[in-house]
Amino acid sequence: MKLEQIYTGCLAHAAYYLESDGEVAIFDPLREVQPYIDRAKENNASIKYVFETHFHADFVSGHLDLKKKTGAEIVFGPSAKPGYEAIVAEDEQIFNVGKCRVKVLHTPGHTMESSTYLIIDENGKEHGIITGDTLFIGDVGRPDLAQHVVSDLTEDKLAGHLYDSLRNKIMPLSDDLIVYPNHGAGSACGKNMSKETTDTLGNQKKTNYALRPDMTKEEFKKELLEGLVPPPGYFPQNVLMNIKGYESLDEVMKKSERPLSPEAFEAAANETGALVLDVRSQQDFAKGHIPKSIFIGIDGSFAQWVGAMIVDTKQPILIVADSGREEETITRLSRVGFDNAIGFLKGGFVAWKKSGKEYDTVDTITPSQLKEAISKENHYPIFDVRKESEFQSEHIEIANNTPLDFINNHLAEFPSDEPFYLHCAGGYRSMIAASILKSRGIHNLIDVEGGFAAIKEEGIKTTDYVCPTTLL
């Protein structure tokens, strides 16, 4: 038996490849399915099943394209109602993959159809559990997402179901089982996931707050729901795509890979109202970019921030990328359901600048320059766009906190009559914030290079007390 975790860092997502005796099962695949097909072909194996732990909210799964290209059967857990042909399994139903077995454990809570798959090897030994969003390393799945699709599924109801699922289906299992979750640290599907992407169930029973044996259901609900922030706006749209079906990635690529000259690019932007998305480095964006374009760098947590900041998956998008990275950008947009890219700038920003068209820049300042500036009595205000939890942990003593996730709700808080400073942890998020503010006509901002990490190195005074001017 071969069981491999295929981890994609930018989404904090784990798919799984199970192979035995020439047969393969894929669990929770990404949108681009060719790598799974190639892997099976290299091993002279065929993909028999695509197992889905639930209808995902944070990405569009590749189950439909895998079925179309390989003939594999799609399997969901009990109560799932997909809008296409699939097997809706019964609780404890067993599927054979070569000489291995996959046992369905219905574990509702994150969603009602959520299921865990118990992997039993060729010798009949229980090896591990593929848990989806039911159980993470150090955390469990948030129970407030389904309500955005079905109003009756309140977070309180789902939290109660999750409590029962963990205690009745997961905790009685053997301590030596390996836990294989769908996500790791950085995913918005939980609150406090570990950076580790696998663990033994026994260790999770000792260390995961949600698996404490003496915890009552009400205590579980309280701890689970405390501190949840609103989910990204694209989550319900991805859920519906996964339930109802979606356009093949091959078709998305065909319509999106359209190289446009600067003139055609500008005309397309004006005629369609497309959002211009610049995915280069934050340093390059600061030096020059198309006016009103939004920066979300391809080398950061790209898909997550696209979903958080753009929200509408149907939004037409025009891409500015470094030459050779256009296909990668379109693919990574499609992972989170943004299938309406309508072209890219041929030759990138260099071509735009050479054409003599107008461009904008972002003013920046080094931490040493910031230190000198705030030593003066009448200095400009500072806005920290990190998460509230990061800010509470430590921040510049005189800073305000406006988390990037909610910046569109607080545009009026930024000064209109004087400059102000922006920073995040390392410079990525603050440049996203700068691009959004500039696209809204707020140009009197100055980005701090290197973010909070560089600020600390410079010795600027910080505190771990919550600033009274925190914006929520």
How would the blueprint of this fold be written?
Elements: E1 2-8, E2 13-20, E3 23-27, H1 34-42, E4 46-51, H2 63-70, E5 73-76, E6 87-88, E7 94-97, E8 100-106, E9 115-120, E10 126-132, H3 155-170, E11 178-181, E12 199-200, H4 201-207, H5 217-225, H6 235-244, H7 249-256, E13 259-260, H8 262-272, E14 275-278, H9 282-287, E15 294-295, H10 302-310, E16 317-320, H11 326-335, E17 341-345, H12 348-354, E18 364-365, H13 367-374, E19 382-384, H14 388-393, E20 395-396, E21 400-401, E22 420-423, H15 428-439, E23 445-448, H16 451-457, E24 462-463
Parallel strand pairs: 3-4, 4-5, 5-6, 10-11, 13-17, 14-15, 14-16, 16-17, 18-23, 19-21, 19-22, 22-23
Antiparallel strand pairs: 1-2, 2-3, 7-8, 8-9, 9-10, 11-12, 20-24
Q: How would you describe what is shown here?
A:
This protein has 3 domains: 2-237, Ribonuclease Z/Hydroxyacylglutathione hydrolase-like (Metallo-beta-lactamase, Chain A); 247-354, 3-Layer(aba) Sandwich (Oxidized Rhodanese, domain 1), CATH 3.40.250; 364-463, Oxidized Rhodanese, domain 1 (3-Layer(aba) Sandwich), CATH 3.40.250. Helices cover 30% and strands 21% of the residues. It is built from 16 helices and 24 strands. It has helices at 34-42, 63-70, 155-170, 201-207, 217-225, 235-244, 249-256, 262-272, 282-287, 302-310, 326-335, 348-354, 367-374, 388-393, 428-439, 451-457, and strands spanning 2-8, 13-20, 23-27, 46-51, 73-76, 87-88, 94-97, 100-106, 115-120, 126-132, 178-181, 199-200, 259-260, 275-278, 294-295, 317-320, 341-345, 364-365, 382-384, 395-396, 400-401, 420-423, 445-448, 462-463. The strands form 5 sheets. It has a 6-stranded mixed β-sheet, with helices on one face. Strands 7-8-9-10-11-12 form a 6-stranded mixed β-sheet. Keywords: Hydrolase, Metal-binding. Residues 270-361, 376-464 form the Rhodanese domain.
